[in-house]
Amino acid sequence: MTPRLKESGYKAGHIGALISSSGVLGIMIPPSILMILYAWGTNTSVLACFLATIVPGILLVVLFSIINVWILNHDTKPDTPEAEKALDDMLQNAEKKAAAQQLRSEEKAKGKSAIPAILMPILLLGSIYGGILTTTEGAAFTVVYSLVIGILYYRTIDFKTFKISMRQAGESAGTIMVMLFTVSIISRLYVTENLPDLILGFLTSISDNRIIILIMINIFMIIMGMLMDDCSGTVLCGPILLPVVQALGITPVQFAAVLSVNLGMGNITPPTAPLLYLGGRVAGAEVKDMLKPLMQFILFGWIPVLIITTYWQGFSLFIPRLLGYS
């Protein structure tokens, strides 16, 4: 996205903040490994966790789009005098029209070949949410479907690429299995040591107001997101905090959405912000140039969604309840 955004007049700092904030949405829009880890560690339905993060994820997309348009309209300053800029705009418009016409013809030619690939996520999510396949069966279906269209339609999969893909898949599966094994051990340790009750007792000693306690829990999860990756944050926060928030009236499914928003925001929140620095390297931007647009995405995008997800139960549970989950 970075080269295309630069061609469209985006500044490097704006690009870094935008792709960092938007890239985190991958942990919320299903299917998400983060939700699989959370569901395993808290003994919650994977499908219910997938469904709970959809509405917060969609709202973030809408808010990011609005904020992005606002930034473009108010923060983009011309680097050339008005007369020179007007001439440049005329030339650029003519070039863009010619390029757009060529691009449309190329996309039209490519559109047919992209249809089988586009159908894959549609068939996968449609079969899972429609109750036709479980998440495990959906994963197996996706593998078979990919092999068929890759070998017979696109003709890009041969024995060599298949061997490389199988090795990479084995490495990924092994990593996830180790994570799940670790989650199971940690969960039992936390329960044995009565850690959730100790945390709840500490929080209630500060304040017995439910709103204040939830604010402190959210701050703790944001800090965890700032200090570690989302998978590690889920392994740590899920088993520890679920009994605490359940005592405050939050269901495991709702907490899946709250956790994903917190960890996602933590991953791009300074000073640690691991994904923010990655976005800056990709966009070729310095952190100081990304701070202003980033804070606009956080203040007017992430924080409102976090507040709504935390305190309005029906917001994240609308789709799960609609399909028979709670």
Output the keywords.
326 residues; mainly alpha; 15 helices; 82% helix; 0% strand
Q: Compute the average pLDDT.
A: 80
Strand content: under 5%
Number of strands: 0
Poorly predicted regions:
78-84
Contiguous helical run count: 15
Number of domains: 1
In sequence order, what are the helices and strands, one letter per element? HHHHHHHHHHHHHHH
Helix content: over 70%
Shape verdict: globular
Structural class, by secondary structure, is mainly alpha
Query: Radius of gyration, rounded?
Result: 23 Å
Multimeric status of the protein: single chain
How is the biggest beta sheet arranged? Answer: none
Distance between the termini: 37 Å
Can you describe what's shown?
The structure is a single chain. About 2% of the residues have low confidence. The chain has one domain. The protein has 326 residues and is an all-alpha fold. The longest helix has 48 residues. The protein is globular and about 65 Å long. Helices cover 82% and strands 0% of the residues. It contains 15 helices and no strands.
